[in-house]
Amino acid sequence: MSILNFFKSKKPDSAAIAKERLQIIVAHERSQRNEPDYLPRLQQELLEVIRKYVEVDQDQVDVALDDSGNCSVLELNITLPGR
Amino acid sequence: MSILNFFKSKKPDSAAIAKERLQIIVAHERSQRNEPDYLPRLQQELLEVIRKYVEVDQDQVDVALDDSGNCSVLELNITLPGR
């Protein structure tokens, strides 16, 4: 559960305390290196699911895709609007 | 990108080499402790999105939900069928 520790280890600043954050990480470990990677196509659909539950501003979504060997990692960091 | 290191640090065994794995982590940092947690409802919808791209056996899905203070973490570990 390393991601929980990641959140906990961050020192909150005043802006972070007021806001909510959502982080989605999808990691795909492939058995063969040359398979097609569907993570880039997946990211928009994941956001649409999240939008059913919370309001998400498109410009508050930070997307990173890391492809290293046979492991692809899609990371979405979303700052949710304050209420 | 700690999740990438998590995958890399695991020593592969013969079964792991033949299989593919998909890990989805959704972490929600709430500004207030007593807000409703939508992560449990989210997990089935995330799986339905994943199923559009890959075949997922229901009994190959391991779900963990960790709620600690103002941070909830939903973790889905999926072993994909070998081809």
UniProtKB/TrEMBL annotation, chains A, B:
UniProt keyword annotations, A-Z: Cell cycle, Cell division
Recorded family membership: Belongs to the MinE family.
Annotated source species: Spongiibacter nanhainus
The function of this protein is:
Prevents the cell division inhibition by proteins MinC and MinD at internal division sites while permitting inhibition at polar sites. This ensures cell division at the proper site by restricting the formation of a division septum at the midpoint of the long axis of the cell.
GO BP annotations of the record are: cell division; regulation of division septum assembly
Q: Which InterPro entries match?
A: MinE, MinE_sf
Signal sequence bounds: none
HAMAP family xref list: MinE
Q: Which gene encodes it?
A: minE
- The highest taxon in the source lineage is Bacteria
What is the official name of this protein in its record? Cell division topological specificity factor
The keyword RNA-binding belongs to this UniProt entry's keyword annotation: no
Does the record bear Transferase in its keywords?
Answer: no
Sample GO molecular function, one term:
identical protein binding
